[in-house]
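Suppose you are handed a protein chain with no further information: no name, no annotation, nothing but its sequence. What can you learn? This example shows the usual starting point.
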Amino acid sequence: MTAIETLMLKAPVIPVLVIEDAAHAVPVAEALVAGGLPVLEVTLRTPVALAAIRAMKDVPGAIVGAGTVLGAGDLDRALDAGAEFIVSPGLTPALGAAAIASGVPFLPGTANASDIMLGMELGLTRFKFFPAEANGGIAALKAIAGPFGAARFCPTGGITAASAPQWLALEAVLCVGGSWLVPRGVPDRGAITAAARAAAALKPPG
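A reasonable first move is to predict its three-dimensional structure. Written in C-alpha cells, the prediction is:
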C-alpha cells in the first residue's frame, strides 16, 4: 500500500478546507479530528493557508496536507510549512517529478484518460478526479477509470453528503473530497464535529 493510499483509507471523506482567518485553523482542525476525519486538505487559495497548515499540524491526531498545489514553488512552500501530503488540481511532468523527488505522498488531479496515463508513466496510481461533478459525475469516472484497473481515485468537486455514498460505491473510489463540512465564517465547533461524524460514517448504499 502506498503512503497516499494509506491516507486515503483513513476515512471516507477528506475535508477540503479554505481557511480565510488563521485564527480559525486550530478550532476547525480540532473539530474535524474529533468527528473522526483526521486527514485535512488545506487549499492554497488564501494568504493564510500556509500559516493554517503550520498551526493545524500541531493538533493531536491531525494529518495536514496542502491542496491547490500548482507547481514546484507551491510544493516547496507547502513542505516548508509542514504539509504531510500534497494535492493538486491537475498534473504536469514538472510538478509530478518534483513531488516524487520530494518523497511526499502526492495526489495529483486528473480529468481524463491522458491525465491518468501521464501519472502512470510517472509511477503514480492514486489520483484525484477533479472537478468531479462538473466533469461528468459518476458516469464519467466509471468510463474513464475502466481501462485503468490499477488506478484508484478521490473524486472532489461538487460532492455533497447526500451524493458521497454513490461515489463511494464505485470500485475505483477510495474516498471523496468534501468541501461541505466547514461553512465560511467563524467556525461552529459543534456543528463541524457533527458534520464530520456523519461524514466519517458514510458508506456505499445497500
